[in-house]
Amino acid sequence: MLVEAVQKLFPTAAVRVALDGVCLALAERTLGDAHDVMDALAISISDHISGGVILGGCAVVGRTGNAGSVAHMLVPGFDERCECGGRGCVDAVASGRAIRSWARDRGWAGDSLAALLTAAQSGDEITAAALGRAGIALGKAISSTAALLDLDLVVISGSVATVGAPLWRPLGEAVAGHARPGYLAGLRIIPSKIDGLGALAGAGILALMGNK
Ligand SMILES: [Zn+2]
Question: Distance from the CA of 51 to the center of ligand 1, in angstroms?
Answer without folding.
Answer: 13
